[in-house]
From TrEMBL:
Source organism superkingdom: Bacteria
Segment forming the signal sequence: 1-26
Keywords linked to the UniProt accession: Signal
Protein name: L,D-transpeptidase-like protein
């Protein structure tokens, strides 16, 4: 337990119930954590913060008891953690927990990069997320409760591998939200591998099932942004993506993403007050809190009009026509 005199930026563990939360209903008792899982709980590298685990377990058990899911595993994410681990590799902040099999895995995941607009700058740096929102078009992460839904696989173009041109397909796992995350489908929020195809040109391939009316297909270079930022979705390494999607495809489960708006507001208030936090205070990763100063939640009612105005003022662009590959 932290002492009452521990300062905010020196805090290594800041957990427990937040203002307005009912610990008996919203968060599971830490003592109920199985013995095998306990070593994975904490704020160290590769561990899951207690409040994140508590809420993820509570959501999973609620949905399972209601008959909404039957998967033996559940998912969680801590978006307050940095992108890079001390060893320089992508840091683990997305968790796959299978209590029946007694397995726990921490993998990297992107968070929303946001936007920098004239009326509001809600862009995030590469290492730590400061801004969060559930506004459509914000490209920001929204913490809260989700259930995995169906998958959609789409063709992105061709790329070169081992001297051959090969088609690149990416599978997108949709999320269903509730409460502050209920517009997840409207926002097209889900999970996918952290790889995209950067188009460079097009080549003639009329026999391809993906050719356009003129017989051309796009060609580009694969870009892997594992551990970086995203458009608000969760994004995993190719290997982790294959595992996660395989785990939940046609067998939905829960995903809890931390922090929610109440957590963000509580931490921002604590930073403004500049006082000491006790062990019953709000949680934020210490490294990222030091970097960002204070987090900010942008309510949809505040941010949506700004985004809509920006979109309305964008000049009309002609359709993109890729050059012919040489």
């Amino acid at each position: 337990m932290l002492s009452q005199s521990l300062r905010l930026f020196g805090a290594a563990i800041l957990i427990a119930t937040l203002p307005g939360a009912n610990s008996a209903q919203a968060d599971m008792d830490v003592a109920a954590i199985p013995a095998w899982l306990a070593p994975h709980v904490g704020t160290g590298e590769g561990q899951i913060a207690p409040v994140v685990l508590d809420r993820a377990r509570a959501l999973y058990q609620r949905k399972r008891d209601a008959g909404a899911i039957a998967n033996s595993c559940y998912l969680a994410m801590d978006a307050t953690r940095p992108s890079t681990a001390p060893d320089g590799e992508p840091a683990g902040r997305f968790y796959v927990i299978c209590e029946a099999d007694k397995t726990f895995r921490a993998v990297s995941s992107g968070y929303g990069n946001g936007r920098k607009l004239r009326r509001a700058d809600f862009s995030n740096g590469r290492e730590c997320a400061r801004h969060f929102s559930n506004a459509e078009g914000s490209k920001l992460t929204m913490g809260g409760a989700y259930v995995t839904a169906e998958t959609r696989t789409s063709f992105k173009g061709y790329y070169r591998e081992a001297g051959e041109k090969r088609p690149f397909h990416r599978t997108f796992l949709l999320f269903e939200g509730e409460g502050e995350t209920e517009n997840a489908r409207e926002r097209e929020i889900g999970g996918h591998q952290a790889v995209f195809l950067k188009w460079q040109c097009r080549f003639e391939n009329p026999d391809s099932a993906y050719a356009d009316d003129q017989g051309y297909v796009p060609f580009g270079r694969l870009v892997n942004y594992t551990g970086g930022r995203s458009n608000g979705c969760t994004s995993w390494s190719p290997d982790a993506s294959e595992e996660i999607i395989g785990l939940v495809e046609d067998n939905p489960t829960t995903l809890y993403i931390y922090p929610e708006s109440r957590d963000i507001d509580a931490v921002a208030k604590a930073v403004r007050n500049g006082g000491a936090l006790s062990g019953s205070g709000p949680y934020w990763n210490t490294t990222c809190l030091t970097e960002i100063g204070a987090p900010r939640f942008w309510p949809k009612r505040t941010l949506q009009p700004i985004i809509d105005e920006w979109r309305a003022g964008l000049p009309k662009q002609p359709p993109l026509v890729l050059p012919i590959c040489k």
